[in-house]
What does this fold into?
Amino acid sequence: MKKKITVYLIAVITIVNISSLVTIVYLKLKQEKVRSFQGFPVNEEMRAKRFQQMKEELKLTPEQIEEFESIRIEFHSRLDSLDNEAQKIRQRMIKEIWKNENESKEIDQLLSRFGDLQNETQRWVVKHLIKFKKILTAEQAEKFYSIVSERFIGMRQNSGLRNFPINQEDIK
It folds into this structure.
């Protein structure tokens, strides 16, 4: 009897573990597809592919390609650094939230730093879009505008926030 129960328990635990692993792999793959769809390059290979598409769509000259590449490398390097810093702040905020029952000075400081970081990121994006635009002809700049605006509109970070109540009356 004990042996039978042990065998059943082992079978159930094995099924649960396999199910968990399959779910983790599935969610990881799904997350990469979503990030790619939202306009976030998943890796350098995706960035290179997008840059290739951009070169073709804008019909860049070899000189423009060289300038774009230089700006692009600087842009993504700094953006990755800012993104990594933001991720660390998010992790610290979650830990701090779970340590305290109420908002703390530490949480306020982390929120402030996170806001500053978002502001810095947006300034970096604007600065580099202007740099990119300056090396384009008027026709290329128009096409670049349509590509960039399409991507920005397609990016819906924090889309879950749209469901949050705006006014106190909406909460009741």
About this structure: Residues 1-38 form one domain.
